[in-house]
Amino acid sequence: MTPPGSPRAPLKPGSTRTPPRARAAKDRTGTFPPEPSEAVRGSLAKGPTRGARRAAQLCDKRPLRLGIIGCGKIAPAYLEVLTRTVPGVVEVVACTDLRPEAARSRAQQFGIPRACTTEELLDDPEIDAVANLTPAPAHHAVNTAVIRAGKHLFSEKPLALTREEGQRILAEAKQREVAVAGAADIFLGPALQRAQAEITAGAIGVPIAAVAVITTDCFDDQHYHDVFRGALLDVGPYHLGAMTYLLGPITRVAASAEIRFAEKPLSVLAKCGSTFRVDQASTTAGVLDFASGAVGTILTTQDAHTWVGRIEIFGTTGALVLPDPVLYGGTLVLRSLSGARRIPMPLPRRFRGDARGFGVLDLAFAVRGGRRPRADGTWMYHVLDASLAHFDSSKEGRHIRIDSTFDLPPQLESALW
Ligand SMILES: NC(=O)c1ccc[n+]([C@@H]2O[C@H](COP(=O)([O-])OP(=O)(O)OC[C@H]3O[C@@H](n4cnc5c(N)ncnc54)[C@H](O)[C@@H]3O)[C@@H](O)[C@H]2O)c1
What we know:
35% of the residues lie in helices and 23% in strands. By secondary structure, the protein is of the alpha/beta class. The longest helix is centred in the last third of the chain and has 20 residues, at 377-396. Nicotinamide-adenine-dinucleotide is lined by residues 69-75, 96-99, 102, 118, 133-136, 138, 142, 156-157, 227-228, 234.
């Protein structure tokens, strides 16, 4: 997703210009407006596109009618939130999967009226938006089909597997006037919202550096490797997503990305003797330059057989240690000259710890309010662009300039949760 727009001018420590974060915090658009917004009225005035008609329908405050494509492992975490924990914002009306029994089973489990084929779901004019919960290799085709059906899109990460595919998705969405949002939307949770508020309030001074580490032990067979495409593309979006949310767009990347073991043992713990083939970098180490003037590093590996997920942001007067950014909630640690302060920001008890779906809720509010979703497609593209730059940099032995950018979304005014 190389979206339109040029990199921001660097904001150096000590600059008197209002930081983007502070500007974003003033722009409060998190509530349902009672009337169609300017943007919706504007798009209605332009002509009867399906996107504009859909936005108009949603101005009556009915729930966003949602279809689900992909009813595998992560689907229950979404459905639990969308149908039970935060009901009424979206109405899940249909679900589909290449495995019809998976769709039927999720429909039964969560009271979804229809389990159907993808074609039937996309042809249904009553469906406003679709959540694509399929694995990465299917994202481009499914995302494109959703947009071509004139429906708003929420996509699991990554948006696509190449820049060209990502750009085409955004271009088609723009042409058809449908919204694109997606994962890793973890910054909509209480932990990263609080982190953003602390940074905006100057709790660590001017942010100057960040470090992120993700090691994962869950890629222990060919299926996982093939469908998730390595640690950087699978779990990297959580870390790059959080870092870009807190520090803004990245302007260049230098990295080493290697296939550490071309043949890996199938389940180290089981010691069963067979192996699987690895054709995507399994360990990456990147250096990131942010437009704000901050620098960062990010290490991802699926070769370490342990789980570590952490991010630390360093400022001129303190540091912020974030909880594992694969989760919406957790405890922040704020270090300053006066000592360390723990700031617990758990999800409310009614949520499961591995909850998903806040980005879908925000998409519903965005469509209804005529604004862009916070976890929008240009940000997803930027994360993909910066991820792919790791592979390019390693291959070419040089820094890769990141041409894509995104506008920092405003802080949530009221909790989605
Ligand atoms: N498993 C997790 O913990 C987790 C967590 C967060 C995000 N995710 C993301 O969610 C997505 C799905 O992950 P998962 O773990 O649920 O995978 P999964 O393999 O368990 O489920 C994916 C489902 O999609 C179906 N599918 C594949 N291609 C399809 C197509 N073209 N049309 C319709 N259905 C199709 C499969 O049959 C399968 O049931 C991935 O992008 C992943 O990165 C997964």
